[in-house]
Amino acid sequence: MKQLYLAEWIAPMSGPVVQGGGLVVEVGRVLAVGDGKTLRREYHDARVIEFGQSIILPGLINSHVHLDLTAFSPSLGTPGEGRGGGLSSIANRKSQIANPNGPHPNPPPEHRGTGPNRSFVDWVENLIQQSMRLGPSPEFWSESVLAGAEQCRQFGVTTAVDISGRFPGDVRRMVGGEVARKLRWISCGEVAAMAQRRHLLEDRLAAALDDQDVDPAVQIGISPHAPYSIEPTGYQRCLQISRERSLHLCTHLAETPDEADFLASHRGPLRELWTFLDAW
């Protein structure tokens, strides 16, 4: 059955904003956009739904989201100051989880990545530190992914590109089924392989491409992480696979001015990050 949505404003994005506009939809497809009174006459058999003093616009597109990091967001509670559903509340329920590899060889100061003067590298180090505390906790990561998907839906996102470096296959399976019917998902597995970790390239590519038991509605992509975390040969390999399989491809570029110094001479805070990881 056709449905006619009426609102004070219709913003089609493909043309001017329409005041007193209407939108005709049938089985999920837009049939017409225009003046509300005109559409009432032309589609007299449509079910009319009035939104009054509102604006109707196309769903938002979030072209870069990290669902598995949702619970690290301040909106869900910073480490040590959890609000319901955030990092601390989930971590407290998993308090017995220990880092299977023991303490990190170069741990940063506690919460160095928090505060108004933190740098990008400080933030990354803090994120890694908090991730190590949780380890491979299925409960934490699944709650984080599903919370992020629900946030997208609540704020008007209808298409999202998720970048997942930890468990890309698991994330794809989580956003399938009912979640996939609410949003369009493009899931890009993240690949990082540099310095002492360059030998992990093929294993990480395989993980990034994991599509076993993934809902067909979830599109697959690949994401060579960034110039400071994957070498040129890794970029070339990702590009090759993307072309061969017609996959989506994305990467991080120019996240911080420190990137230029690192690429030119392997110096600066990003080089220190590799020291922190004990992997240079």
Account of the protein in words:
With 280 residues, the chain is of the alpha/beta class. Helix content is 34%, strand content 23%. It is built from 10 helices and 12 strands. Strands 1, 2, 3, 4 and 5 form a 5-stranded mixed β-sheet that branches. It has a 5-stranded parallel β-sheet with strand order 6-9-10-11-12. A two-stranded antiparallel ribbon has the order 7-8. A hairpin with a 2-residue loop joins strand 7 and strand 8 (81-82). The protein is elongated and about 70 Å long. Residues 75-113 have low confidence and may be disordered.
User: What is the residue-averaged pLDDT?
Assistant: 84
- Termini distance? 61 Å
SSE order in H/E notation? EEEHEEEEEHHHEHHEHEHEHH
Helix- and strand-based class? alpha/beta
**Rg to the nearest angstrom?**
23 Å
Helix content: 25-40%
Largest sheet: 5 strands, mixed
In terms of quaternary structure, the protein is: single chain
- Low-confidence spans: 75-113
State the helix count: 10
Secondary structure: number of strands = 12
Strand content: 15-25%
Q: What gross morphology would you assign? A: elongated
